[in-house]
Amino acid sequence: MKHPLSGKALLFYLLAWAAIIVAHANILYYQLGFDFIYSVTDSLIYNISFLGFGLLYWYVVQYITPNNQGITATVLNQGLAVVIGVSFLTYLCNSFLASFGVDNPDVSAFLSMSIPWRIFLGTFFLGMIVLVYYLLQYTSSLKQKEKDEVELQHLLKNAELETLKFQLNPHFIFNSLNSISSLTLTNPEKAHEMVVKLSEFLRGSLGQKEAELHTLKDELAQMNRYLEIERIRFGDRLVLEEDINEGCYDRMVPNLILQPLYENAIKYGIYEQLESVKIFTRTYCTEEYLTILISNNYDSESTPQKGKGIGLKNVRNRLELIYGKSDLVTIKRERDNFTIELQIPQTQKRKDD
Amino acid sequence: MIKAIIIDDEQLARDVIRKFLEDFDQIEIAAECANGFEGIKAIAEHQPELLFLDVQMPKLTGFEMLELLDPAPVIVFSTAYDQYAIKAFELSAADYLLKPYSRDRFKEAVNKALDKIHKPEENKKSLDKLQESSLSKEKIDRIVIRSGSKLTIISVDDIDYIEAQDDYVEVHSAGKKYLKQMTMKALENSLPDEFVRVHRSAIIHIDRLDKIEPYSKDSYVAILKSGEKVSVSRSGYQLLKEKLGF
User: How many inter-chain contacts (A to B, CB under 8 Å) are there?
Assistant: First the structure.
């Protein structure tokens, strides 16, 4: 922490000492009847020394803090240091002022008589300064703590969001590569097409760090790349239908938030039934919300393998972290149809406009 | 001629195998199947010596399908999932191909499979191995049962109890009984923790237990919520005691 007495605070400090200097000189001159030169010199020498000492004392305060020594030790150490410092300084000033007392016995007597007073007053002033230093240090460390706390919360939230973001499924990549390897043998033209699609998809998924949100249009374009690749893999077994309100295209959605939902739909639809799976995507929007529905038919009689709910949980957690609401994902399980509904709040977007 | 069947739910994946098999004059493709159900039928019909099998398939995984085959043909697994390799070799698969694979790698796998086909005595062990494969500590979610041409998939949550019947186990679920060729030991190892082997010849689902009563000096009887009774040995009683903490 830098010296607290700088700028305005330093000016205030100097003014306070100036007032003390004037008062000190006045008392000597009017009340005790010393001559003008002595009164002013005594006041200046004594008080300017303490002024400087007070400024320098900050560096002592920094090394003796309750944090590293405990409160009792700090009070004792500081008390001792202040008294010793003040006594020493008083002695120095007195020795200097003693030259005035050589041919003035009044001055000489006053100097020796006033030592306890000077030490007492000096200790009082310095004590005040030390107290102010500690107060300033305390409030500044409190502020720092609050700032650190906020920073930490922010970092935590970011880290959490990062882990919840869509992670590329390696099986998808390897299965796609296998499809391509097959097409290179039988249908090079189609293989080329699939390589291009896969590249476009990877470009959109691997470099997704920049923005947390993007438009529905971008999201759907990226999802289409994914679904087209899966369509080459699964052929007629994957049927895609959509009802997209183009008026919602510029609404904002979290990056790749739909990917786990399509993955789930394909997993349940393709792997838990022998018939083809139909995935239906529907969107509509109001001022406050963008609604996205993704549904797939499934075999209600099937006995699915367990452990497949992670994708959906991530979507829920991610939306909760971004929008602070826990009820944005709804699951509808009908007899042979499975629907997931997402409500994406749009208030943030309007604020940015 | 060696008869082979390709079972994979993706047409393009089957195409690669068909294409690469052109290098082997002695192998003839008897059928291509898109799922395990078709596979079971085709195997019964053609009795192939060699099987190219995908792991992740609709309804029935390649491993579940394999359980239902006795005797099992020589198998080459092909999948994009490398975590199944250990299990595949436990099941004495001839080889395990990770998609996508090269023509050379495929040849190597087929040559291994051909070696196995020509030395059938080694292959005989495969089913026994399969039964003990649950040593891999992997717990199952569901159990596949075949009776004739009909396949039934039962979630382990729906199993009430299991009794030994000679070389078979009899699975009781919602009042119905299903026979499956498997040892009690293998089944006990692969069932999740809610199942307790209460007797040499019985495993019960503890959620279904209603009460336990003494039967003779050294044995007990477990009465299930359905009213069905299962004998409990002294050591079985101890296991239940530990599990339920009574």
Answer: 69
